[in-house]
Amino acid sequence: MMWALADGDGWRRWRCVGSALVVLVCVLAAPAPAAADFRLCNNTGSRIGIAIGYKDRDGWTTEGWWNLAPRACETLMHGSLIARYYYIHAVDYDRGGEWSGQAYMCTREKEFTIRGTEDCLVRGYERTGFFEVDTTEQRSWTVQLTDSPSPASSPAMPSYLPPPPGGRPPPQPGSPK
Protein backbone atom coordinates (compact mmCIF):
# COMPACT_ATOMS: atom_id res chain seq x y z
CA MET A 1 0.00 0.00 0.00
CA MET A 2 2.52 2.52 -1.13
CA TRP A 3 -0.10 5.15 -1.95
CA ALA A 4 -1.31 5.15 1.68
CA LEU A 5 1.78 7.16 2.53
CA ALA A 6 0.90 9.96 0.10
CA ASP A 7 0.54 13.47 1.43
CA GLY A 8 -2.65 15.60 1.20
CA ASP A 9 -2.03 16.50 -2.48
CA GLY A 10 -1.31 12.88 -3.31
CA TRP A 11 -4.65 11.81 -1.85
CA ARG A 12 -6.44 14.41 -3.95
CA ARG A 13 -4.73 13.09 -7.09
CA TRP A 14 -5.73 9.49 -6.24
CA ARG A 15 -9.31 10.57 -5.56
CA CYS A 16 -9.47 12.35 -8.95
CA VAL A 17 -8.02 9.33 -10.74
CA GLY A 18 -10.40 7.02 -8.85
CA SER A 19 -13.41 9.20 -9.67
CA ALA A 20 -12.43 9.31 -13.34
CA LEU A 21 -12.14 5.51 -13.41
CA VAL A 22 -15.57 5.08 -11.78
CA VAL A 23 -17.14 7.42 -14.38
CA LEU A 24 -15.35 5.58 -17.22
CA VAL A 25 -16.53 2.17 -15.96
CA CYS A 26 -20.13 3.46 -15.62
CA VAL A 27 -20.10 4.86 -19.16
CA LEU A 28 -18.68 1.66 -20.63
CA ALA A 29 -21.05 -0.57 -18.65
CA ALA A 30 -24.21 1.40 -19.47
CA PRO A 31 -26.48 -0.49 -21.86
CA ALA A 32 -26.68 0.88 -25.38
CA PRO A 33 -30.10 2.14 -26.43
CA ALA A 34 -32.12 -0.58 -28.14
CA ALA A 35 -32.41 -0.30 -31.89
CA ALA A 36 -35.94 0.64 -32.90
CA ASP A 37 -36.36 -0.05 -36.59
CA PHE A 38 -38.61 -1.81 -39.11
CA ARG A 39 -36.41 -4.41 -40.78
CA LEU A 40 -36.99 -6.98 -43.48
CA CYS A 41 -34.91 -10.12 -43.99
CA ASN A 42 -34.73 -12.01 -47.27
CA ASN A 43 -34.33 -15.65 -46.23
CA THR A 44 -34.55 -16.92 -49.81
CA GLY A 45 -31.91 -17.81 -52.36
CA SER A 46 -33.15 -15.06 -54.71
CA ARG A 47 -32.73 -11.32 -55.06
CA ILE A 48 -35.92 -9.52 -54.09
CA GLY A 49 -37.40 -6.02 -54.39
CA ILE A 50 -39.37 -4.53 -51.47
CA ALA A 51 -42.01 -1.79 -51.27
CA ILE A 52 -43.55 -0.64 -47.97
CA GLY A 53 -46.78 1.16 -47.14
CA TYR A 54 -47.74 2.88 -43.89
CA LYS A 55 -50.01 5.55 -42.44
CA ASP A 56 -48.52 8.48 -40.56
CA ARG A 57 -50.09 11.71 -39.27
CA ASP A 58 -50.24 13.07 -42.85
CA GLY A 59 -51.96 10.02 -44.38
CA TRP A 60 -50.89 7.01 -46.45
CA THR A 61 -47.42 6.68 -48.00
CA THR A 62 -45.82 3.95 -50.09
CA GLU A 63 -42.08 3.75 -50.72
CA GLY A 64 -39.87 1.49 -52.79
CA TRP A 65 -37.75 -0.16 -53.98
CA TRP A 66 -35.22 -1.71 -51.67
CA ASN A 67 -33.19 -4.44 -53.38
CA LEU A 68 -32.15 -7.25 -51.07
CA ALA A 69 -29.55 -9.87 -51.86
CA PRO A 70 -30.27 -13.48 -50.91
CA ARG A 71 -30.01 -14.16 -47.17
CA ALA A 72 -29.68 -10.44 -46.33
CA CYS A 73 -31.56 -7.98 -44.10
CA GLU A 74 -32.30 -4.29 -44.61
CA THR A 75 -33.70 -1.56 -42.36
CA LEU A 76 -36.68 -0.03 -44.18
CA MET A 77 -37.71 2.46 -41.48
CA HIS A 78 -35.17 3.88 -39.01
CA GLY A 79 -36.17 4.76 -35.45
CA SER A 80 -39.24 3.94 -33.39
CA LEU A 81 -42.19 2.69 -35.40
CA ILE A 82 -44.77 5.36 -36.27
CA ALA A 83 -47.64 2.95 -36.92
CA ARG A 84 -48.92 -0.38 -35.70
CA TYR A 85 -49.67 -1.73 -39.18
CA TYR A 86 -47.24 -1.76 -42.07
CA TYR A 87 -47.84 -3.19 -45.53
CA ILE A 88 -45.31 -5.04 -47.67
CA HIS A 89 -45.13 -5.98 -51.32
CA ALA A 90 -42.10 -7.95 -52.51
CA VAL A 91 -41.02 -9.33 -55.87
CA ASP A 92 -38.69 -12.28 -56.48
CA TYR A 93 -36.39 -11.02 -59.25
CA ASP A 94 -34.73 -14.37 -59.95
CA ARG A 95 -37.54 -16.95 -59.91
CA GLY A 96 -40.66 -14.84 -60.35
CA GLY A 97 -43.46 -14.78 -57.81
CA GLU A 98 -44.30 -12.17 -55.24
CA TRP A 99 -45.42 -11.57 -51.69
CA SER A 100 -48.68 -9.63 -51.93
CA GLY A 101 -52.06 -9.22 -50.31
CA GLN A 102 -55.44 -7.54 -50.45
CA ALA A 103 -54.46 -4.03 -49.28
CA TYR A 104 -54.06 -2.07 -52.52
CA MET A 105 -51.64 0.83 -52.71
CA CYS A 106 -49.81 2.79 -55.39
CA THR A 107 -46.36 1.81 -56.71
CA ARG A 108 -44.26 2.36 -59.80
CA GLU A 109 -41.38 0.50 -61.44
CA LYS A 110 -38.64 2.95 -60.42
CA GLU A 111 -37.73 4.29 -56.98
CA PHE A 112 -40.72 6.08 -55.45
CA THR A 113 -42.37 7.79 -52.52
CA ILE A 114 -46.09 8.18 -53.17
CA ARG A 115 -48.60 9.99 -50.92
CA GLY A 116 -52.12 8.56 -50.90
CA THR A 117 -53.60 5.22 -51.99
CA GLU A 118 -56.52 6.47 -54.07
CA ASP A 119 -56.78 6.62 -57.87
CA CYS A 120 -53.41 4.99 -58.50
CA LEU A 121 -54.00 4.39 -62.23
CA VAL A 122 -55.45 7.86 -62.85
CA ARG A 123 -52.38 9.40 -61.18
CA GLY A 124 -50.03 7.37 -63.42
CA TYR A 125 -49.07 4.67 -60.88
CA GLU A 126 -49.65 0.95 -60.64
CA ARG A 127 -52.24 -0.47 -58.22
CA THR A 128 -50.43 -3.16 -56.21
CA GLY A 129 -51.54 -5.61 -53.51
CA PHE A 130 -49.69 -5.46 -50.18
CA PHE A 131 -49.90 -7.84 -47.22
CA GLU A 132 -50.41 -6.51 -43.70
CA VAL A 133 -47.85 -6.74 -40.91
CA ASP A 134 -49.22 -6.18 -37.39
CA THR A 135 -46.34 -5.01 -35.21
CA THR A 136 -48.54 -5.17 -32.08
CA GLU A 137 -47.31 -1.64 -31.29
CA GLN A 138 -43.73 -2.78 -30.65
CA ARG A 139 -40.92 -0.23 -30.93
CA SER A 140 -39.13 -2.33 -33.57
CA TRP A 141 -40.08 -5.22 -35.85
CA THR A 142 -38.43 -7.60 -38.32
CA VAL A 143 -40.27 -9.32 -41.18
CA GLN A 144 -38.81 -12.62 -42.44
CA LEU A 145 -39.57 -13.50 -46.08
CA THR A 146 -39.00 -17.18 -46.90
CA ASP A 147 -39.41 -19.64 -49.74
CA SER A 148 -42.65 -21.59 -49.64
CA PRO A 149 -42.26 -24.39 -47.07
CA SER A 150 -45.07 -26.54 -48.48
CA PRO A 151 -44.32 -29.13 -51.20
CA ALA A 152 -47.89 -28.60 -52.48
CA SER A 153 -47.05 -24.95 -53.25
CA SER A 154 -45.36 -23.86 -56.40
CA PRO A 155 -41.61 -23.79 -55.76
CA ALA A 156 -41.45 -20.30 -57.26
CA MET A 157 -44.12 -18.89 -54.92
CA PRO A 158 -42.52 -17.40 -51.82
CA SER A 159 -44.22 -17.16 -48.44
CA TYR A 160 -44.23 -14.85 -45.44
CA LEU A 161 -43.68 -15.93 -41.85
CA PRO A 162 -46.57 -14.21 -40.03
CA PRO A 163 -46.19 -12.31 -36.76
CA PRO A 164 -47.07 -14.04 -33.49
CA PRO A 165 -50.74 -15.01 -32.89
CA GLY A 166 -53.21 -12.33 -31.88
CA GLY A 167 -53.06 -10.22 -35.06
CA ARG A 168 -56.06 -8.65 -36.76
CA PRO A 169 -58.11 -10.21 -39.55
CA PRO A 170 -56.97 -9.21 -43.04
CA PRO A 171 -58.26 -5.92 -44.48
CA GLN A 172 -61.19 -5.85 -46.88
CA PRO A 173 -60.09 -6.03 -50.53
CA GLY A 174 -59.16 -2.66 -51.95
CA SER A 175 -59.01 -0.69 -48.70
CA PRO A 176 -55.98 -0.47 -46.40
CA LYS A 177 -56.67 0.45 -42.78
Properties at a glance:
177 residues, 2 domains, seven-stranded antiparallel β-sheet, 1 helix, disordered N terminus, disordered C terminus
pLDDT < 50 stretches: 1-6, 16-34, 149-175
From N to C, what is the helix and strand string?
HEEEEEEEEEEE
Please give the count of helices.
1
Large-scale geometry: globular
Q: What's the assembly state of these chains?
A: single chain
Query: What is the count of structural domains?
Result: 2
Beta-strand residue percentage? 35-45%
Radius of gyration: 25 Å
Mean pLDDT: 75
Report the major sheet. 7 strands, antiparallel
Portion of residues within helices: 10-25%
Supply the helix-strand structural class. mainly beta
In whole angstroms, the N-to-C terminal distance is: 71 Å
Q: Work out the number of β strands.
A: 11
Describe the structure in your own words.
By secondary structure, the protein is mainly beta. The protein has two domains: 1-30, no CATH class; 38-160, no CATH class. The protein has one helix and eleven strands. Strands 2, 3, 5, 6, 7, 8 and 9 form a seven-stranded antiparallel beta sheet that branches. A four-stranded mixed beta sheet has the order 4-1-10-11, with no helix packed on it. A hairpin with a 2-residue loop joins β2 and β3. It starts with 7 loop residues before the first helix and ends in a 17-residue tail after the last strand.
Briefly, what is this?
The chain contains one helix and eleven strands. By secondary structure, it is mainly beta.
